[in-house]
Amino acid sequence: MPAAAVAAAATPPVVVGIEINPAMKRHFELEIRTLQDAPRDADRLRAFANKAETISKATRIEDIQTLVMEIEMLLFRKFSTTP
Question: Which residues contact 54 (CB under 8 A, 6 or more apart)?
């Protein structure tokens, strides 16, 4: 192998552009993982959508608390089951 090729292979790649703040980088990584782990089952997606719509229509605090607990249980089921 020529010496220039060895030297090029040994040097790290040059980063072009703007460096990302580590906090923003972590935020983007978490968003990507959230999207990758999102449920793809139509029934689950409908359940989440229906509960979110019902919460937006709820006016009484008791209704909201009940619906929040139901959504938390759906999220627990989502993360506790393996795909």
Answer: 67
pLDDT tens by residue, 15-46: 567 788 889 889 989 888 888 887 777 888 88
- Find the DSSP H helices in 17-60: 22-37, 42-57
> For the whole model, what pTM was predicted?
0.34
Helix (H, G, I), strand (E, B) or coil at 2: coil
Q: Are 25 and 34 contacting, i.e. CB atoms less than 8 angstroms apart?
A: no
Cα–Cα separations (whole angstroms), residue 62 to 14, 51, 73: 57, 15, 17
User: How far is the C-alpha of 38 from the C-alpha of 74, rounded, in Å?
Assistant: 12
Q: H or E segment at 63? A: helix 61-80
What residues does each domain of the chain span? 3-80
